[in-house]
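Usage

Read records sequentially. Each one opens with the input sequence:
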Amino acid sequence: MSRQSKMEGGFAYRNTGTIKNSYAAVKIGTSVQIGRNKSGNAGFVYDNSGELDHCFSRSIMRKWKKEKDGLIAVNKGRFHWCFFVVSREKKLKKFRDREHGFAKKDVVPAFLEDTYQWDFTIFERDPASKMEFLRENWHCAPNGLEQSAVKKTLEIGNCRQLLDWIERVNRGEPEAAQGNVLLTDNLDFYGKEIPSIGCDKQHPFLGTFDGGGHRIAGVVLNGKGAAEIGFFGVLEGTVRNLTVDCIVKGKDCPLAAAFCAVNEGEIHCCEAVCAIHAKRYVGLFVGENNGLIERCCVSGKSYG
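and closes with the structure output:
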């Protein structure tokens, strides 16, 4: 395998943990062929040795010259009731894992409920038959343990407060890196470059970040000189109820993702909207997942 080969998953590059009730709706760039049996890209996860449960992809692979992987390129783990969607049935013959794919017209409530044990009440169909999660049903409430926690919650309501807090996390200050945060408003950085939260494995984020259902937009993440880049770099805590809209400049970074580069913790009810420019290991929502991700989605484009 060439050292410079790009390997990419529409949702995650590598999964050794658990991803459930999540989906990817992205456009993936030019593919390369690696060896005889696996391609450079996959619609949901490139390399899975963990568990996938009730996940799907409707990712579009652009300029693909070889056989495609609609769901997983390399699987050493388990997946349950997962599938991918293409626009027309005749396109399925181009996919190596075509047995897990369906034409859009066939993805209807009765079929999914009977065959894949999906609860279709979390979906809707627009006139063009585009399938989406109903995000208003996603809100993730704190569990009893967190509600009874003694830790004081830091409320963040503007960009300056967020940047100050990120700087403290990345210095390893325990109060910031291990604390509880609540986002109280939508934020827009208007194209400003900001550092990852938990900039590396020596300075992870270990606390709890609740987005409160808000959106952080206009973010640019620059991975130059970093081992990994994402809005959250290395996460060992919990994130929930947050949407991130960002551009990722990851051409000089080995591992690139929009929402989280390396997840060792938990991510619940979150969304990434992204454009990623990278050429090594890419997952559009998460780079490497070793923890738990549930009720999350990603949309956007990846460029080689």
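Summary fields computed downstream for this record:
- The chain is about 10% helix and 45% strand.
- The two ends are 18 Å apart (CA to CA).
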